[in-house]
Amino acid sequence: MSNESQIFSPSTNPYSSANEAVRAELSEIDASIRTASVFFVVSAIGWLMIGTVFALMAAFKAHQPDFLGAYEFLTFGRVRSAHLNAMAMGWGSNIIFAVGLWIMARLCRAKIDNKGILFIAGVFWNIGLTVGVFGILRGDITSVEWLEIPQYATPILAVSYALIGVWGVMAFRFRKGDHVYVSQWYILAALFWFPWLYIVAQAMIIWFPARGVVQSLTNWWFAHNVLGLWFTPMALATAYYLIPKVLGRPIYSYYLSVLGFWALAIFYNWAGVHHLIGGPIPAWLISAGVVASVMMVIPVIVVGLNHHMTVVGLHREVWRSPTLRFTVFGAISYTLVSLIGSAMALRSVNEITHFTHFTVGHAHHGVYAFFTMIMFGGVYYMMPRLLKREWPSAGLIKIHFWGCAIGITVMVVALQVGGWIQGVEMNNPEIPFLETVQNTIPWLKARSVSGIFLTVGHIAFAVNFFWMLFAAGAVRAKSGPTLLTKEGGAA
Question: What are the CB-based long-range contacts (under 8 Å, 24+) for 203-210?
Answer without folding.
Answer: 205/144, 205/147, 206/142, 206/144, 206/147, 206/151, 206/154, 207/151
